[in-house]
Amino acid sequence: MTGGRTTGNGDCRSGNLASVSPPQRAPAEAVEDRVRRRLRELRTELGLTLQDVAERADLDVSTLSRLETGKRRLALDHIPVLAGALGVTADELLGAPPAGDPRVRQPPRRTDGLTLWPLSNRTGAARLHAFRMVISARRRRPPSRLAVHEGYDWMYVLDGRMRLLLGDDDFVIEPGEAVEFSTWTPHWFGVVDEPVEAIALFGPQGEEHHVHGTPR
Question: Are both 115 and 193 inside the same structural domain?
């Protein structure tokens, strides 16, 4: 052996992620590519900016950007740091998303005249969650005090007419109409007459407020 090169199985002492690729599997560079892709995917799914992840990982934004784009080599010690910043395990960051049944089979949540079916298997406090929502015909009368909490709500009415109170305003939302509003504004939604079916996007605060029932 000459010129400082190695032969046979790679030596992990360099700390490069490329050195952990097992024999007879995808080339080492493919492992790095997969981790970079997963880093971008997970960051986007969580709604995090490079600045957000860099602060959590105690890295410079420029360093994180170079790691994500391939302008800087990923080292082994980057993996647990980046995984922790994203709130996932190192295996989740290293590996491809597991294959399997892609259908969402989470049970509905029922509370306060609402039935909500999760439309994603993903969980996480920082991300938006989508629901198919049915508002019972019994939910007609608003409470004496309208709800106020941090965040935004977004809804698209599929069927029925939804009544939406925002502060002093009283709206009737028809099928095919969408609404979005700051939940810092006192608000409530129910039905005008018949049940309403809608698609709803709730952030973590809206989900905590609207989706706190027991699965049935």
Answer: yes
Q: Are residues 51 and 86 in the same domain?
A: yes
> In this structure, are residues 53 and 43 in contact, taking their beta carbons and an 8 Å threshold?
yes
Distance, in Å, from the CA atom of 35 to the CA atom of 131, rounded to the nearest integer, reads 30
Work out how many domains the chain is built from and give that number.
Answer: 2
pTM: 0.54
Distance CA 162, CA 193 (A): 9
DSSP 155: E
Distance CA 174, CA 153 (A): 17
Domain stops at, among 65, 94, 123: 94
Give the span between the Cα atoms of 105 and 120, in whole angstroms: 9
Residue 146 confidence (pLDDT):
94
Residue 11's pLDDT is what? Answer: 45
Domain end marker among 67, 94, 121: 94
63 and 115 part of one domain: no
Ramachandran sector of residue 38 (left: φ over 0; alpha: ψ -120 to 50; beta: rest): alpha
How far does CA 171 lie from the centroid of its chain?
30
204 in a domain, yes or no? Answer: yes
Which pLDDT belongs to residue 38?
86
Q: Which residues of the chain have pLDDT under 50?
A: 1-14, 22-23, 25-29, 213-216
